[in-house]
């Protein structure tokens, strides 16, 4: 047989073999990957073909299946990667065709339905996490989950119409339950009511709605002004009298929502008495002693005991003015700012300590020019020509009121 004839026979045989392949024209792997030369029906135990190198990797339960479970014909490319091509859609198209969105190849059972639901347009929180699926999904028994209305009233209309305390229908409450109720809570209790538009804190933290909303009201239009609820408190207060003193009716200007109205922050104190210096660190009771209706507004009114008790110098005995600001500042009693010039200028040799002239520390109205400075032996010769001259402790001041000679 000539070489040309042999080549033709081989080509014809090869073409015939490929034409007869049960795996289709697109299958390009060598037969020896899977078959033995002893027969087509015998597959190799050490099959070289790796399904994970294809676009459809085998994981979970799929690794336990025989090839014909998915490849019903030997034309492998005919098999679809869609789950529904092998698995019946028990949800009847209600959740889409992507099984892997909820299920894994490990098992059909969903390990965490709550977590799965969090990826939907209605995440489950509060009481919804423990609710039975069928309570919302009427087709649950048939595994039919079409989209449902996510508005609260769609499921809770019975509760809305049945509630009488307060009567939601009569009050015209919104059917958007989340406007009043916290969906993260477990119950509908009033404690879960979202009152953030008017925070119920401090003294307002009350459980009885009717304390502010009178029975029969529609719960609408209630003023958020303190005075609208607390007018009686304002008028009845006498210590101090809010009406007499013309206090603002904006309660929050002085009070917080703390129970009992205390402590108050009287921001307009300067309208009545300016608090400066040491007065800024005082507590209210140190001046008012619990009586805010008749607190004195003069220094002496509060500091009479300091004035009377001071002995160095003795203010009362010396006849010092009771207007403390003439000598003292509000920062501290000492050092004082007593202006001696209005009595006698302390300049030159007269710039001495108080006790030099005021020898009686119990009475600074008394003084002596002669006690320590101007002796009679020194003074008499200088006044020999002065008519009616008398040497005495205060005689110098009679003629020399400004402290200078020759006056």
Overall description:
- The chain has 407 residues and is an all-alpha fold.
- It has five domains: 3-81, no CATH class; 83-150, no CATH class; 157-222, no CATH class; 226-336, no CATH class; 348-399, no CATH class.
- Helices cover 23% and strands 2% of the residues.
- The chain is built from 14 helices and two strands.
- It has helices spanning 3-19, 67-70, 113-117, 133-136, 152-162, 168-171, 226-236, 242-245, 284-288, 299-309, 315-318, 354-357, 376-379, 395-399, and strands spanning 35-36, 39-43.
- It has a two-stranded antiparallel sheet with strand order 1-2.
- β1 (35-36) and β2 (39-43) form a beta hairpin.
- It starts with a helix and ends in an 8-residue tail after the last helix.
Write a brief structural summary.
Helices cover 23% and strands 2% of the residues. The protein is mainly α and 407 residues long.
SSE blueprint:
Layout: H1 3-19, E1 35-36, E2 39-43, H2 67-70, H3 113-117, H4 133-136, H5 152-162, H6 168-171, H7 226-236, H8 242-245, H9 284-288, H10 299-309, H11 315-318, H12 354-357, H13 376-379, H14 395-399
Antiparallel strand pairs: 1-2
What are the salient characteristics of this protein?
mainly alpha, two-stranded antiparallel sheet, 407 residues
Taken from the alpha-carbon principal axes, the silhouette is: elongated
- Total helical elements: 14
Rg from Cα: 52 Å
Stretches where pLDDT is under 50 for at least 5 consecutive residues are 5-18
- SSE-based structural type: mainly alpha
Helix-strand pattern, N to C? HEEHHHHHHHHHHHHH
- Widest sheet, order of strands: 1-2
How big a fraction of the residues is strand? under 5%
Largest sheet: 2 strands, antiparallel
**Oligomerization status of the protein chains:** single chain
């Amino acid at each position: 047989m000539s070489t040309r004839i042999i080549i033709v026979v081989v080509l014809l045989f090869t073409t015939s073999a490929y034409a007869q392949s049960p795996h289709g024209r697109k299958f390009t792997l060598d037969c020896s990957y899977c078959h033995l030369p002893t027969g087509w029906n015998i597959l190799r135990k050490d099959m070289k073909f790796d399904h994970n190198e294809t676009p459809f990797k085998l994981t979970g339960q799929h690794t336990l299946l025989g090839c014909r479970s998915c490849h019903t014909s030997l034309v492998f490319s005919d098999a679809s990667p869609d789950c529904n091509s092998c698995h019946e859609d028990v949800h009847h198209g209600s959740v889409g065709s992507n099984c892997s969105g909820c299920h894994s190849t490990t098992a059909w059972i969903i390990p965490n339905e709550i977590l799965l639901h969090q990826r939907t347009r209605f995440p489950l929180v509060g009481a919804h996490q423990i609710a039975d699926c069928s309570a919302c999904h009427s087709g649950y028994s048939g595994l039919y989950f079409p989209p449902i209305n996510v508005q609260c009233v769609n499921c809770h209309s019975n509760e809305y119409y049945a509630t009488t305390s307060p009567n939601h229908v009569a009050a015209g409450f919104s059917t958007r339950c989340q406007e009043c109720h916290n969906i993260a809570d477990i119950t509908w209790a009033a404690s879960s009511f979202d009152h953030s538009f008017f925070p119920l804190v401090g003294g307002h933290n009350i459980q009885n709605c009717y304390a502010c909303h009178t029975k029969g009201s529609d719960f609408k239009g209630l003023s958020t002004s303190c005075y609208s609820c607390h007018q009686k408190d304002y008028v009845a207060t006498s210590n101090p009298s809010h009406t007499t003193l013309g206090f603002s009716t904006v309660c929050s200007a002085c009070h917080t929502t703390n129970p009992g109205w205390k402590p108050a922050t009287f921001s307009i104190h300067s309208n009545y008495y300016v608090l400066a210096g040491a007065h800024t660190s005082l507590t209210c009771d140190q001046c008012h002693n619990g009586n805010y209706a008749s607190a004195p507004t003069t220094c002496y009114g509060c500091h009479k005991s300091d004035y009377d008790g001071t002995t160095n110098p003795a203010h009362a005995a010396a006849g010092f003015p009771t207007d403390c600001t003439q000598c003292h500042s509000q920062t501290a009693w000492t050092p004082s700012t007593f202006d001696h010039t209005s009595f006698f200028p302390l300049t030159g040799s007269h710039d001495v300590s108080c006790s030099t002239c005021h020898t009686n520390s119990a009475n600074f109205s008394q003084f002596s020019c002669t006690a320590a400075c101007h002796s009679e032996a020194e003074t008499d010769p200088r006044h020999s020509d002065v008519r009616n001259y008398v040497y005495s402790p205060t005689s110098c001041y009679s003629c020399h009121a400004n402290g200078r000679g020759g006056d």
